[in-house]
């Protein structure tokens, strides 16, 4: 039957389209508070992030969302991390805060926000971003944040 081979061909073309153009890996990560770069730096006012909680931000570069978080540990040190890790980044789920813990949205591994250092021996852990404090701001160089673009 000439009609059945056409139907089979159309079904194969349709399935190929679905597999090629609708992959799950094309999902964008969440969008948090948008932050912009100025003169090659991202500046975050310390009064906004010194409350002991984790604060999530999104930096956009060429349509890509690069998510990161800033937290203050129990010794009052501020640090920035990509909202992803080398193990679970491909799922683009990032982390969430539950009580006093940062929790991976993919594998549910927990990290105490108050801990000075996070153990990354289990594979999943936030990726540290080089940052510094200058007067009343936490500063991240735009080049350093853009290096993380490949994991988003």
Summarize this structure as a short list of keywords or feature phrases.
152 residues; alpha+beta; Rieske Iron-sulfur Protein; five-stranded mixed beta sheet; three-stranded antiparallel beta sheet; 3 helices
Write structural notes for this entry.
19% of the residues lie in helices and 33% in strands. With 152 residues, it is α+β, with helices and mostly antiparallel strands. It has one domain (26-151): 3-layer Sandwich (Rieske Iron-sulfur Protein), CATH 2.102.10. A five-stranded mixed beta sheet has the order 1-3-4-5-9. Strands 2-11-10 form a three-stranded antiparallel beta sheet. A three-stranded antiparallel beta sheet has the order 6-7-8, with no helix packed on it. The protein is globular. The termini are far apart. The model is unreliable at 4-25 (pLDDT under 50).
In short:
The protein is α+β, with helices and mostly antiparallel strands and 152 residues long. Helices cover 19% and strands 33% of the residues.
**Major sheet: arrangement of strands:** 1-3-4-5-9
Q: CA-to-CA gap between the ends?
A: 49 Å
What class, by secondary structure content? alpha+beta
Beta-strand content: 25-35%
Taking Cα atoms only, what radius of gyration do you get, to the nearest Å?
A: 20 Å
Which shape, going by the Cα principal axes? Answer: globular
Largest sheet: 5 strands, mixed
CATH architecture: 3-layer Sandwich
Number of helices: 3
How many strands?
11
Q: Spans of 5+ residues with little confidence (pLDDT < 50)?
A: 4-25
